[in-house]
Amino acid sequence: MAGRLHFVASPVPEGQSALANLRLQYEDVGPDKADIIVALGGDGFMLQTLHAFLGRPKPIYGMNLGTVGFLMNEYNEADLTQRLANAEPAEIHPLRMRAQAPGQTVDGLAFNEVSLLRQTRQATKLRILVDGKVRISELICDGVLVATPVGSTAYNLSAHGPILPIDSALLALTPISAFRPRRWRGALLSHRAHVRFEALETGKRPVSAVADAVEVRDIVSVDVAEDRSIGMVMLFDAGRNLDERILTEQFLD
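The structure corresponding to this sequence follows.
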Protein backbone atom coordinates (compact mmCIF):
# COMPACT_ATOMS: atom_id res chain seq x y z
CA MET A 1 0.00 0.00 0.00
CA ALA A 2 1.30 3.46 -0.89
CA GLY A 3 -0.24 6.85 -1.39
CA ARG A 4 -0.38 10.46 -0.30
CA LEU A 5 0.69 11.07 3.28
CA HIS A 6 -0.23 13.17 6.27
CA PHE A 7 2.05 13.21 9.31
CA VAL A 8 0.94 13.67 12.90
CA ALA A 9 3.24 13.64 15.92
CA SER A 10 3.30 13.55 19.69
CA PRO A 11 3.76 17.07 21.16
CA VAL A 12 7.02 16.06 22.90
CA PRO A 13 10.26 17.51 21.44
CA GLU A 14 11.29 14.19 19.88
CA GLY A 15 7.97 13.94 18.08
CA GLN A 16 8.05 17.48 16.77
CA SER A 17 11.64 17.10 15.58
CA ALA A 18 10.77 13.90 13.70
CA LEU A 19 7.73 15.59 12.20
CA ALA A 20 9.84 18.45 10.84
CA ASN A 21 12.44 16.05 9.40
CA LEU A 22 9.89 13.86 7.62
CA ARG A 23 8.02 16.81 6.15
CA LEU A 24 11.28 17.95 4.58
CA GLN A 25 11.68 14.56 2.88
CA TYR A 26 8.08 13.61 2.03
CA GLU A 27 5.14 15.71 0.95
CA ASP A 28 2.41 16.20 3.57
CA VAL A 29 -0.89 16.73 1.72
CA GLY A 30 -2.97 17.29 4.86
CA PRO A 31 -5.55 15.07 6.59
CA ASP A 32 -8.33 15.46 4.01
CA LYS A 33 -6.30 14.54 0.90
CA ALA A 34 -4.12 11.90 2.49
CA ASP A 35 -4.46 8.19 1.74
CA ILE A 36 -2.33 7.18 4.75
CA ILE A 37 -1.77 8.78 8.15
CA VAL A 38 1.75 8.43 9.58
CA ALA A 39 1.75 8.75 13.38
CA LEU A 40 4.99 9.55 15.21
CA GLY A 41 5.04 8.71 18.91
CA GLY A 42 4.33 5.87 21.29
CA ASP A 43 1.43 3.50 21.83
CA GLY A 44 -0.54 6.15 23.69
CA PHE A 45 -0.25 8.53 20.78
CA MET A 46 -1.36 5.78 18.40
CA LEU A 47 -4.55 5.39 20.45
CA GLN A 48 -5.08 9.17 20.26
CA THR A 49 -4.61 9.05 16.48
CA LEU A 50 -7.11 6.20 16.08
CA HIS A 51 -9.69 8.24 17.95
CA ALA A 52 -8.84 11.42 16.06
CA PHE A 53 -9.54 9.79 12.69
CA LEU A 54 -12.67 7.84 13.63
CA GLY A 55 -14.83 10.12 11.49
CA ARG A 56 -12.69 9.67 8.39
CA PRO A 57 -11.12 6.21 8.61
CA LYS A 58 -7.78 6.08 6.86
CA PRO A 59 -5.01 3.50 7.29
CA ILE A 60 -2.60 4.54 10.04
CA TYR A 61 1.08 3.66 10.04
CA GLY A 62 2.90 4.36 13.29
CA MET A 63 6.60 4.90 13.89
CA ASN A 64 7.81 4.44 17.44
CA LEU A 65 9.22 7.28 19.49
CA GLY A 66 7.92 5.91 22.79
CA THR A 67 8.94 3.23 25.26
CA VAL A 68 7.21 0.00 24.23
CA GLY A 69 5.83 0.71 20.77
CA PHE A 70 3.82 -2.49 20.47
CA LEU A 71 1.37 -0.78 18.10
CA MET A 72 4.13 0.99 16.19
CA ASN A 73 6.78 0.24 13.59
CA GLU A 74 10.48 0.94 13.99
CA TYR A 75 11.33 4.60 13.51
CA ASN A 76 13.34 5.03 10.32
CA GLU A 77 13.13 8.02 8.00
CA ALA A 78 14.64 6.18 5.01
CA ASP A 79 12.60 4.32 2.39
CA LEU A 80 9.27 5.21 3.95
CA THR A 81 7.46 5.05 0.60
CA GLN A 82 8.69 1.50 -0.02
CA ARG A 83 7.84 0.40 3.52
CA LEU A 84 4.31 1.68 3.07
CA ALA A 85 3.99 -0.04 -0.31
CA ASN A 86 4.85 -3.38 1.36
CA ALA A 87 2.96 -2.78 4.61
CA GLU A 88 0.46 -5.36 5.88
CA PRO A 89 -2.95 -4.18 7.16
CA ALA A 90 -4.77 -5.20 10.34
CA GLU A 91 -8.38 -4.15 10.90
CA ILE A 92 -9.39 -3.55 14.50
CA HIS A 93 -12.73 -2.79 16.17
CA PRO A 94 -13.26 -0.87 19.41
CA LEU A 95 -15.30 -1.65 22.48
CA ARG A 96 -18.21 0.67 23.17
CA MET A 97 -18.74 1.58 26.81
CA ARG A 98 -21.92 3.05 28.25
CA ALA A 99 -21.42 4.11 31.85
CA GLN A 100 -24.24 5.14 34.15
CA ALA A 101 -23.40 7.48 37.01
CA PRO A 102 -25.66 9.66 39.15
CA GLY A 103 -27.23 12.22 36.83
CA GLN A 104 -25.32 11.23 33.70
CA THR A 105 -24.80 8.62 31.01
CA VAL A 106 -21.40 8.63 29.32
CA ASP A 107 -20.41 6.76 26.15
CA GLY A 108 -16.83 5.95 25.25
CA LEU A 109 -14.84 3.89 22.76
CA ALA A 110 -11.80 1.79 23.63
CA PHE A 111 -9.39 0.12 21.21
CA ASN A 112 -7.44 -1.45 24.10
CA GLU A 113 -9.76 -2.10 27.03
CA VAL A 114 -12.57 -0.87 29.24
CA SER A 115 -11.49 -1.05 32.87
CA LEU A 116 -13.30 -0.55 36.17
CA LEU A 117 -11.14 0.53 39.10
CA ARG A 118 -11.63 1.25 42.79
CA GLN A 119 -11.47 4.95 43.66
CA THR A 120 -10.52 4.64 47.34
CA ARG A 121 -8.76 2.30 49.76
CA GLN A 122 -11.87 0.10 49.79
CA ALA A 123 -12.01 -2.82 47.37
CA THR A 124 -14.80 -2.75 44.82
CA LYS A 125 -17.80 -5.04 44.84
CA LEU A 126 -19.19 -5.77 41.40
CA ARG A 127 -21.88 -7.96 39.88
CA ILE A 128 -21.01 -9.30 36.41
CA LEU A 129 -23.59 -10.25 33.79
CA VAL A 130 -22.83 -11.70 30.37
CA ASP A 131 -25.61 -11.53 27.78
CA GLY A 132 -28.11 -10.78 30.53
CA LYS A 133 -27.18 -13.73 32.76
CA VAL A 134 -25.48 -13.20 36.13
CA ARG A 135 -22.12 -14.96 36.04
CA ILE A 136 -20.63 -13.56 39.26
CA SER A 137 -23.02 -12.18 41.84
CA GLU A 138 -20.27 -10.50 43.86
CA LEU A 139 -16.67 -9.94 42.78
CA ILE A 140 -14.49 -8.28 45.41
CA CYS A 141 -11.40 -6.85 43.73
CA ASP A 142 -9.33 -3.81 42.85
CA GLY A 143 -11.04 -3.78 39.47
CA VAL A 144 -11.86 -5.69 36.31
CA LEU A 145 -11.41 -5.12 32.59
CA VAL A 146 -12.62 -6.22 29.17
CA ALA A 147 -9.85 -6.25 26.57
CA THR A 148 -9.81 -6.52 22.78
CA PRO A 149 -7.20 -8.73 21.05
CA VAL A 150 -5.09 -5.60 20.49
CA GLY A 151 -5.47 -4.57 24.12
CA SER A 152 -4.84 -8.07 25.44
CA THR A 153 -1.09 -7.37 25.39
CA ALA A 154 -1.43 -4.13 27.38
CA TYR A 155 -3.09 -3.67 30.81
CA ASN A 156 -4.79 -7.05 30.44
CA LEU A 157 -1.43 -8.82 30.23
CA SER A 158 -0.15 -6.95 33.29
CA ALA A 159 -3.22 -8.21 35.15
CA HIS A 160 -2.29 -11.80 34.11
CA GLY A 161 -5.01 -12.00 31.47
CA PRO A 162 -4.63 -14.09 28.30
CA ILE A 163 -3.05 -12.86 25.08
CA LEU A 164 -5.56 -13.11 22.22
CA PRO A 165 -4.68 -13.66 18.55
CA ILE A 166 -5.81 -10.67 16.49
CA ASP A 167 -8.27 -12.76 14.45
CA SER A 168 -9.61 -14.80 17.39
CA ALA A 169 -13.03 -13.05 17.60
CA LEU A 170 -12.65 -13.14 21.39
CA LEU A 171 -12.62 -10.70 24.28
CA ALA A 172 -10.75 -11.15 27.56
CA LEU A 173 -12.61 -10.56 30.83
CA THR A 174 -9.89 -10.21 33.47
CA PRO A 175 -10.05 -9.36 37.19
CA ILE A 176 -7.52 -7.04 38.80
CA SER A 177 -6.32 -8.38 42.18
CA ALA A 178 -9.43 -10.47 42.84
CA PHE A 179 -10.04 -11.24 46.54
CA ARG A 180 -13.33 -13.16 46.23
CA PRO A 181 -13.84 -15.45 44.37
CA ARG A 182 -10.12 -15.89 45.06
CA ARG A 183 -9.52 -18.52 42.41
CA TRP A 184 -11.35 -16.76 39.58
CA ARG A 185 -8.84 -15.83 36.88
CA GLY A 186 -11.23 -14.38 34.31
CA ALA A 187 -12.98 -15.65 31.19
CA LEU A 188 -12.73 -15.72 27.42
CA LEU A 189 -15.84 -14.33 25.75
CA SER A 190 -17.15 -14.22 22.21
CA HIS A 191 -16.63 -10.84 20.57
CA ARG A 192 -20.44 -10.72 20.29
CA ALA A 193 -20.86 -10.85 24.08
CA HIS A 194 -22.54 -8.03 25.97
CA VAL A 195 -20.95 -7.53 29.40
CA ARG A 196 -22.63 -5.58 32.17
CA PHE A 197 -21.01 -4.53 35.43
CA GLU A 198 -23.13 -3.36 38.36
CA ALA A 199 -21.40 -1.59 41.23
CA LEU A 200 -22.45 -2.73 44.72
CA GLU A 201 -22.24 -0.62 47.90
CA THR A 202 -21.44 2.46 45.84
CA GLY A 203 -21.58 4.84 48.78
CA LYS A 204 -18.80 2.97 50.55
CA ARG A 205 -16.94 1.57 47.55
CA PRO A 206 -16.94 4.09 44.64
CA VAL A 207 -15.79 2.81 41.26
CA SER A 208 -14.49 4.57 38.14
CA ALA A 209 -14.73 3.31 34.55
CA VAL A 210 -12.17 4.08 31.84
CA ALA A 211 -12.42 3.57 28.06
CA ASP A 212 -9.05 4.62 26.61
CA ALA A 213 -9.02 8.36 27.48
CA VAL A 214 -12.63 8.62 28.74
CA GLU A 215 -13.04 8.29 32.53
CA VAL A 216 -16.31 8.26 34.47
CA ARG A 217 -16.28 8.32 38.26
CA ASP A 218 -18.81 7.02 40.78
CA ILE A 219 -20.40 4.65 38.28
CA VAL A 220 -23.54 2.67 39.02
CA SER A 221 -23.33 0.35 36.02
CA VAL A 222 -21.26 -0.11 32.87
CA ASP A 223 -22.24 -1.91 29.65
CA VAL A 224 -19.52 -3.07 27.27
CA ALA A 225 -19.77 -4.60 23.79
CA GLU A 226 -17.66 -4.61 20.66
CA ASP A 227 -18.78 -2.13 18.00
CA ARG A 228 -18.30 -3.92 14.67
CA SER A 229 -19.71 -0.93 12.79
CA ILE A 230 -16.39 0.84 13.40
CA GLY A 231 -13.27 -0.56 11.76
CA MET A 232 -9.86 1.09 11.71
CA VAL A 233 -6.90 -0.17 9.70
CA MET A 234 -3.37 -0.15 11.09
CA LEU A 235 -0.35 -0.79 8.87
CA PHE A 236 2.70 -2.81 9.86
CA ASP A 237 6.02 -3.50 8.17
CA ALA A 238 6.14 -6.73 6.17
CA GLY A 239 6.96 -9.68 8.41
CA ARG A 240 6.16 -7.70 11.58
CA ASN A 241 2.38 -7.59 11.35
CA LEU A 242 0.10 -7.52 14.37
CA ASP A 243 -0.53 -11.29 14.26
CA GLU A 244 3.19 -11.94 14.49
CA ARG A 245 3.69 -9.45 17.30
CA ILE A 246 0.91 -10.96 19.39
CA LEU A 247 2.24 -14.48 18.79
CA THR A 248 5.79 -13.43 19.68
CA GLU A 249 4.58 -11.79 22.90
CA GLN A 250 3.37 -15.17 24.16
CA PHE A 251 6.90 -16.60 24.11
CA LEU A 252 8.63 -13.74 25.95
CA ASP A 253 9.70 -13.89 29.59
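The longest helix spans residues 13-25.
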